[in-house]
Amino acid sequence: MKHTITLAKTAGFCFGVARAVDLVYQLVGAGEPVTTLGPIIHNPQLVQDLAQKGCQAVDDPLQAGDRTLIIRSHGVGRQVYELLERNHIRYRDATCPFVAKIHKIVSEHSAAGNPVIIIGDKSHPEVQGIIGHCTGPCFAAQNMNELIILRKEFTNEEKNDIIVVAQTTFRQDLWNDCCEYLKKHYTNIKIFDTICNATNERQSEAAALARSSDLMVVVGGRHSSNTAKLLEVCRTYCPALLVETAAELDRELLLRSPRIGVTAGASTPADIIKEVLQTMSEMIKNQDEELNFAELLEQSMSEKLYNGKRVKGVVTSIAPNEVQIDINAKQAGFIPLSELTDDPNLRPSDIVEKGQELDLIVIKVNDQEGTVMLSKKRCDSAAGFDTITEAYENGTVLEGVVTDVVRGGVLVLSNYVKIFIPASLVSNTRVEDLNTLLKQTVRFKVIEIKENSRKAVGSVRAVLNEEKAAKAEAFWNQVEVGQVYKGEVKSLTSYGAFVDLGGVDGMVHITELSWQRIKHPSEVVNVGDFIEVYVKDVDKEKKKISLGYKKTEDNPWEIFKNKYAVGDVVTAKIVSLTQFGAFAQIIPGVDGLIHISQLSTQRVAKAADVVSVGQEVDVKIIGIDLDAKRISLSIRALLEEQEAAEQAQIMEEAAAANNVTITSDEDAPAEAEEETEPEEVPAEE
Predict the structure, then answer these.
(1) What is the rounded average pLDDT for all residues in the chain?
(2) Residues 424-454, buried b or exposed e (16+ Cβ, 10 A)?
(3) Stretch (H or E) spanning 534
(4) Model confidence over 5-57: pLDDT tens digits?
């Protein structure tokens, strides 16, 4: 097999890194005592070489002492410069000019009151330095999930210009996606494309080389951001291997790959790249004239089993705790239940069946007993990890079952791989007891891949937030005033209740909860209640919605109008006293005024002399103004009617006693007849 090795044109130090490294070596060579604030670059070999020459890295500027402190190409925040000046510490600034340009942009715009969004890894020293030059609102996000979360936290209600910059080593394709998202969801966006030209060119060359290669070898430090980005780009098109030195090269992998491409991170020294290329050349030297190495390796190993070897086997029998396997070898193969699956609820018969062929990995060979322990789950996990990695790169949503609660989170089994999900990411709401999630099926996204340990970190919250954002967008596209929704009460405040309408929260003001006056929303609703509300007002631009809850048919004035009229006598409760009378509640929500002149048939100096709060009294409705919501009541009218009735009763009783018919004034003749004197009767003698 003929092999070709192609080195990318721009592999190795970029301008900014070369400038910083040259400065340090120049000062060390001149005998000046120097130290660097953090490793000068993310390359352990070069950092170790400098340490041997007396240049140690420090984490705190105050640790520099009387040595000259070198600020590395990543740059630092404004507060570090102030600390150095305040403590009279000598320093040389090796900040990359491209990074310094970002500092200038964010410093000027942040001072003007404009919020800043940095597309990059907030844990990276370069991004931390950029943040240190912002005096106002500042946010960092390195992927679409973090941008979606940011959109919920930062709404830019003040409508200020939003300044957007990028970490210099950020991937160009991801930067483009992030910019499109921001332009779609925010107004007044000002974008500064601050990705270093060298970074962009390096990634483009790596992608082009990977398209025509069977294997890419990426040379660089494992903690180097730009090297990690190169590895991601290369793996999009072909298998890729990250090595810090030539000692980490995989000979077997190289010999299986006819076309090999090589690139290197911006912090990788030229001598390490040269050593890797020379070692690779020696490994594949004269291969075109010799028997294919992979074939020789397979021949030498075909007769001997060893730990880690992949084999095929056929299930011969199934026991409760293990499975017997024929692997066409002198040893008897078996798979213990623990190596079949991580799911404690499954039995061997649930997983395999007799006669089934399986892909397996050798775990332990015991020649004395003539047995070989095999693993199905590890083989499945190896293949499953490729699926997990692909889902990470594509942002695909995965599904899995929560199998374990561990320190700081849970483990979810998906594609035969256990993914760690931190407690803060198991939901978009607080989960007090993680054990309640055991055996539940969850949907999640992979947010981090640890290649060296073949471990992954996932987030359920990212999926829930994306789904909530999608629901919210659909909601705002169709919501109109007057529409009715059934939602869940999510929280209560002193001024109202917030109701989840399905991805969007609306507020029912306290005055819209009840027709009666209430002191707190909890008098009407509780958190967790499902209530029917209607849209009173909506502001799609500010994403605010006002809701109504009280119904027209429950309006106490409507009830009063249908039930009462002028002249009706009702029993009312005195609810308050004033200088001009007393207010009495007829029905809940409707009060009437008993004017001070209507409290009694006698002159009243103050209402408290006649009635008291809480007292129930009979009143007569003497006036109704529904438009002004005013009702006039009278106790006096009832008293006068009662007195008139009592007077009539007395007269009737007196007339009955004297056998006289009493008529009302209306029955009397218009003119009374002239009275005549009785005739005088002479007295008897």
Answers:
(1) 86
(2) ebbebeeeeebeebeeeebbbbbbebeeeee
(3) strand 530-539
(4) 999 888 877 778 888 888 998 898 888 999 999 998 888 888 888 888 889 89
Strands of the sheet containing 162-166, edge to edge, are 138-141, 116-119, 162-166, 189-191
DSSP assignment of 15-27: HHHHHHHHHHHHH
Q: Any idea which of 295-309, 442-456, 460-474 has the lowest mean pLDDT? A: 295-309
Continuous H helices in 33-86: 44-52, 78-86
Pinpoint the alpha helices (H) of 540-664: 556-563, 636-658
Mean pLDDT of 391-396: 89
For the chain, list the domains and their CATH numbers.
15-97 (3.40.50.11270), 98-195 (3.40.1010.20), 204-289 (3.40.1010.20), 306-375 (2.40.50.140), 380-465 (2.40.50.140), 479-550 (2.40.50.140), 564-639 (2.40.50.140)
What confidence score (pLDDT) does residue 213 get? 92
**Least trusted range by pLDDT, from 103-107, 210-214, 452-456:** 452-456
**525 close to 497: Cβ distance less than 8 angstroms:** yes
Helix, strand, coil in percent for the chain, rounding step 5: 35, 30, 35
Q: Closest Cα partner for 231 from 275, 255, 221?
A: 221
**CA Rg, the chain, in Å?**
44
What's 38's DSSP letter? Answer: S
Q: Of the candidates 37, 43, 162, 167, which has an alpha carbon nearest to the alpha carbon of residue 98?
A: 167
pLDDT in tens, 516-549: 788 899 988 999 899 989 999 988 888 889 998 8
Q: pLDDT at residue 171 above 90?
A: no
The pLDDT-based confidence of 554 (bands split at 50, 70, 90) is confident
Q: State pLDDT tens for residues 216-252.
A: 999 998 888 888 889 999 998 999 999 999 888 988 8
The pair of structure tokens assigned to 560 is 């009063």
Residue at token pair 């600390």: 83
What residues contact 283, with CB distance under 8 A and at least 6 apart?
A: 249, 251, 254, 255
Residue 497 reports pLDDT greater than 60: yes
196 φ/ψ angles, rounded to the nearest 5 degrees: -60, 135
Does residue 541 have an active-site annotation? no
Dist. CA 85–CA 71, nearest whole Å: 14
Q: Let me know if 25 is exposed, middle or buried by CB neighbors in 10 A (0-12, 13-18, 19+).
A: middle
pLDDT at 464 exceeding the cut of 70: yes
Number of residues that make up the chain: 685
Please tell me the distance from the alpha carbon of residue 331 to that of residue 333, in angstroms, as a whole number.
6
Q: What whole-number distance in Å separates Cα of residue 15 and Cα of residue 198? A: 8
Contacts of 233 (CB under 8 A, 6+ apart): 171, 203, 206, 207, 210
At residue 683, the pLDDT reads: 38
Q: 494-530 burial, b if ≥16 CB within 10 A, otherwise e? A: eebbbbbbeebbbbbebebbbbeeeeebeebbeeeee
Cβ-count burial of 67 within 10 angstroms (0-12 exposed, 13-18 middle, 19+ buried)? buried
Selecting among 32, 82, 126, 488, the annotated active-site residue is 126
**Nearest Cα residue to 211 out of 175, 190, 238, 187:** 238
